[in-house]
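Handout, section B. The chain below has 145 residues.
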Amino acid sequence: MRCAKRIVLAGIMATALLSSIGIAHGATIYLCKAYNGATFWASTHCNQHKAFIERIEEVADVPWDQQVRQAEQGRAARSQAAQATQADTGEHQREMRCARLIAERNQIESRYTNWQWQPPEVINPDQQRMRALRGELSANRCSSQ
């Protein structure tokens, strides 16, 4: 009997702790999109308002205004995280493009480092491509190494 009381008391304390730090979820609210494009939050399913579901958010069991505020904050945080991930991906793609351009430039330059004669049919296209590569390297803010 004593053990059961401790478990119940521990459960109540854990629930209070989780709710005090904002982890407990007590309600589900829906971000709905009307047929005309307007968006609104609802506590009931969007189809009851003749709208589409844009997002579903789990929020604490607090007054409606606070639930909407929590949902908006969660939405903004996820949006920022997604943008950061896209920025990291974009930076990675830029670095890969720079590496490819630098490798191509080094390959063209290697034809001329041994001081052997090259026919004009090779030199002219190489000069044109080197001009284009310098422009692309500059536009992509690639390091010159």
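Note. The two ends are 74 Å apart (CA to CA). Compare this with the example in section A.
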